[in-house]
Structures are given as structure tokens and as C-alpha cells.
Amino acid sequence: MKYSKFTRVSSALVCAVLLAGCGASEDDGGNPRSEEEALAVSDRLTVADPAVVAASDIPVFPIEKYLPKVGEDARIAAASGELIRECMAGFGFAYEPPAPSQETLDSGENGANRARRYGVSSASSAAVNGFHLPKDGLAGAQPPPEVPPMSEAENKVFIGDQDPATGVAPGDKVAGKEIPPGGCSGEAQRRLKIEPRQRMAEKINNVSFARSQENAQVKKALQEWSACMGRAGHTYKTPLDALDRLTGETPSPAELSAAKADVKCKDSVNLVGVWFAVESEIQETLIARNEEVLAQDGTSFDALVRRASEEIAKS
């Protein structure tokens, strides 16, 4: 999800809008618990007889029940943008927030990114796009318009004292009007009641992926996949290595060949089945340990999405 004008938002606003910040979890008694303990994973975890899973048919991960959807994050960003526009107008500045498409607002996709989580997964896509992302729907699309940089005064009103680089102090004024704490972006946060903390679901999603790559069972499957790729004439340690080697805007014949072999080798050694089983087990363990926090996060986030939707309906 990309919003061109939001590249100028301070890290504090981005953190809050996407609910990415610091937040300690709690134990069953409501006492603070270290994040390390909350997200600890055994390095001895194994899954007996993982189901066979085709690379193109990855099941839903346990954590997806708790992950925010792309459309929900888009609604929060859109509502925030409208509130910032309203605030900036009060200072005489014509700020136009980016408008997400209805398709984006309705998107049920989430951070699990099943289609690319373990690299390329579709044989048909690999044959056409290699390791590159498909360009479906991009043909004829117009590039986003150039956004002129903000003036110093606009930037001060937009960010306020969230960023020391602006030099804004509490009580400072622009055009005879006092800049709100955190600028107009901070004002939007307060009106939407955005809490600067990261959802536990997103942490679990990230941790499970990272720790699964350290798991002995997954490592063995990756070695088998790598050996299969070697027999096909391609040298890769993991499917993620291929994505790191992308060059150019279009795939070369060599890349197409490697991508097709990648999917075949995944299926031949059941790499996705093993990886999915191990990662799902990690997620289930962490979900059970952090069930109360996940429920609290979900309630807070659902309320935020409702407020954002109501704000969008007003505009």
C-alpha cells in the first residue's frame, strides 16, 4: 500500500497510523511481561508428518484471524488524511491527501502475504514473470502525479513538534494560529484516538516467519529444495535468495528457467508443506500464550476502524 504524500509524514505518525510502536504484553494476571518471553519459541519444535501442500495452494495461517486487513489500514490512513487536510486548511494550506481506490479499501489481504511468503508460488506466474511480481492490472496505469515539496511553514504545521528538525516548540504559531501538539498529523491521531503501539498479531506474524527459518525441520527441507535446484542447474540456498537477486524490470530467460524450477522443486520436496506446518505450529504456540493481548488488540483495532469509517463517511 503506497500513499505518495505520506512519505512526508514523520515516523511518529506512520508508527501510530499503522499501530506500529512499542507495547508490552501482559501475563494472565495483568502484569507486564517481557516481549522476549511473550515471543519465545523452542528451537526443538518439530511437526510429525506435515501435510503435502502445493506451492500454489498455501492454506490460511492461524495468525491471519488476528492480522489487520489491507483495507482496514487503508481506511485508517484515508481518515487520517482527511483530518489532516481539514486541519491544514485552517492554516490556509491546501493539503490534498492521497485517495485510496475502492479496491484497496475493500481488500481482505493481510500481512501474511501467502502468495509470496515463501517466494514465487505460481507455476504459471513463474513462467511469465520469473521471480518478479506480476504486472497484471498495471498495463496503461498512470503514474501518480508529482507531489510538490512542502514549504517550511507547511511542514511545521503538518508535523509540529513531533520532529525536532522542524524547530517547532509548544505554543508556536503559523499565520497567527497556534500549531497543535504534533502538528496536524498529531491532531488527526488524537481525533481518531490512535494508540501508538504495535499489535501482537503483527509481531507473531514476523517472529514465526523469522524463527521458522531457524528450525531444523525447515532447514532440512530447504537443503532438499536447494539440491533439487542444483540438479536443475540453479544455485540457491533458499527461495528467498532468488528474490534478493532480482535485476531489471523484466525477467531474463535464465530467471524464467530458475523460477519454474523453483516451483517444481518446492512441490517435489514438499517444502511449502513442511514450512507451513512448522510456522503454523509456532503461531499456534504464540497465539495461545498471548491470547488475552490479542483479544484486547482486536477490540481496540476494530473500534479504530469503525471511527475511521465514520470519518470517511463524513468527507
Q: What ranges have pLDDT less than 50 throughout 5 or more consecutive residues? A: 1-26, 137-141
Give the C-alpha Rg.
23 Å
Shape: globular
Gap between N and C termini, in Å? 21 Å
Largest sheet, described in full?
Answer: 2 strands, antiparallel
Please give the number of β-strands: 4
Count of DSSP-assigned helices = 13
- Pattern of helices and strands: HEEHHHHHEEHHHHHHH
Task: Give the mean pLDDT.
Answer: 87
Structural class from helices and strands?
mainly alpha
- Content of β-strand: under 5%
> Spatial order of the strands in the main sheet?
1-2
Helix content: 40-55%
Task: Jot down its keywords.
single chain; two-stranded antiparallel ribbon; 315 residues; 3% strand; 4 strands; globular; mainly alpha
